[in-house]
Amino acid sequence: MRPEVLRCALLAVLLLGGCSSVAALRGEKPASVAAPSGEAIQAAQLSSYIASLQQLVQGSPAEQAEVLAAARAAYEQAHQGPAALRYALVLAAPDHPGRDPALAEKLLREVLAHPELLTIAERAQAVVELQRTVAELRLAAENDRLVGELQKERERQRNAAPSATALQRRLQNELDENARLRKQLDEKNAKLDAIINIERGISDRPPAPATEGRTP
Questions:
Q1: Residue 92: inside a domain, yes or no?
Q2: Per-residue confidence at 211, pLDDT binned at 50, 70, 90?
Q3: Is-contact 89 118, C-beta < 8 A?
Q4: Among 110-119, 130-139, 197-206, which stretch is predicted with the lowest mean pLDDT?
Q5: Are residues 72 and 104 in the same domain?
Q6: How far apart are the C-alpha atoms of 85 and 126, rounded to whole Å?
Q7: How many domains, the chain?
Q8: 132: containing domain
Q9: CB-based contacts of 188-191 (< 8 A; 24+ apart in sequence)
Q10: Do residues 174 and 181 touch, judged by C-beta distance below 8 A?
């Protein structure tokens, strides 16, 4: 029997026994006391869940470890139903070192595979928490994918950096070679111009006068 149900049952027994004892002392017929309704039991269970989660999120490290250990111990004894649900809720709760959303999703799916073991409130809580956990895991996977792509792009840029440097060096070598060839061409053009100027100077020189007659 679950601890919450057991506590409610014991409380009801004590109340019935107390009323009977008082009535017996007074010589009166004991009045009937209504047993806790299913709605009251479900409300008590839900309140207990919420209190545990609040302690897990806001409590000290020691309190967090205590809640986690208690939920794990209960799950190891039952492995299904409310014990599995509570352990899943603890694993999915934020801001504590023992959280494990992936395991929480697995347990929630197992819990919802046997809804007959849960109350209406527990089933509703399991459905809502499963949807929230799935959304969290999907967002985390997308974030990991984007981070991985960013790392690959940075690695590609680092690998491309030497190629860019080599290309720049090759371009500089070609520029130097072009400058050297241009210098050689200028020198050859200068020599050619000098030869042309010499030939032009020779062609422009007036011819020597012709000698008249021969010397006897």
A1: yes
A2: low
A3: no
A4: 197-206
A5: yes
A6: 7
A7: 2
A8: 43-168
A9: none
A10: no
